[in-house]
Amino acid sequence: MLIAPLDWGLGHATRCIPIINELIRQGARVTIAASGGQKTLLYEQFPLLEFIEIPGYELSFKRGLLLKWALILRIKVILKQIKKENKWLEETVKSHEINGVISDNRYGLFHKKLYSVFITHQLNIQSGWGYHVNIGSLPLAVGSWIDKKIMKWNYRFIMKFSACWIPDLAENNSLSGMLSHPAILPPIPVKYIGILSRFKKEEKKIISNYLLILISGPEPQRTDFENILLGQLAISNMQSVVVRGLPGTANSNSFVREGLKIYNHLPADKLNELMNRSEFIIARSGYSTIMDLVTLKRNAILVPTPGQTEQEYLASYMQEKKWMFSVQQKNFNLENVLSTYQKMRLELPGIPESNLYQLVKDFLEEISNGDRD
Fold first, then answer.
1. CB distance 164 to 191 below 8 Å
2. CA-CA distance, 157 to 75, in Å (whole number)?
3. How confident is the model at residue 307 (pLDDT cuts 50, 70, 90)?
4. Is 373 inside a domain boundary?
5. Is residue 68 very low, low, confident or very high in pLDDT (cuts 50, 70, 90)?
6. What are the distances in angstroms from CA 64 to CA 30, 219, 244, 316, 359?
7. What is the value of pTM for the model shown?
8. Does 213 share its domain with 164?
9. In Å, how far are 212, 213, 362 from 278, measured between CA atoms?
């Protein structure tokens, strides 16, 4: 069977890791379709699996242009890529022994004759032009004509798949809030997987005054945030590690100051250790990062990518729940942020185990039934 993560950021690839592990445990022959940094990261984790190169979206965004506007301006390119993806899958099914597909946010990887699953935590995509209210324990979007149109477009593609898996909890303590809990679900089987993470909680002593910074996201904002941080870290006396989120590139040996280490990328085991032991963690508010932090029972300082409405919503939602502390990239001041963070009382919820085992079991039974004419 084929599994393919979207190539926007590393989060889609990292949250596929526990799914791939479960597929292997249950005896599936897994082929991974990936490109660029996602392929590098997954190959590091699964060097013995078969990999197929899949075309990436390779979108670039102009400096100063909000991401939501940039995406609107690229909509024709995105739609063209979705069509290209679908054609790629048709050809790949003919040339490889593919009997099922798991697509993490790649809208074109559906097939009329194969059981195909679409993974997303964004059924209710937020444009940034709407507003929301809380009804009961879950926030619901209201009053946004644009958001309703986006949802209709979103569902039109999701409906082409056999099922939809959502990496979140179905009810209490949802991590993605209204993003994954719309009033109306797509008219295909929708399953809440639970929280997915490649990391494990370790009962090790926290290193006092130790700062871990995880940088990620689209350019040029990734580099902008890195420059802000490195400028302030250069005059800080904290023991710090910066992970730049650039797999596939050699780690730099450039010297900034004593006590500051900079890596382009770290293997999962080393990153797992640092996330367990660092007293302070600063990261983007990407959903996969949030799932990792909650799995490790670690609070963090979240800095959403400017203009990326999903991250802005998630950062605000995490702070509203008093699970994480959120600050904006604009005018970011490390000393002030750490001082404020230390005064906050944050407490993460308990998270039940995922039901990934049963979903994978059901998936493998479905694809064993053969073509879906």
1. yes
2. 14
3. confident
4. no
5. low
6. 41, 11, 21, 22, 42
7. 0.90
8. no
9. 6, 10, 39
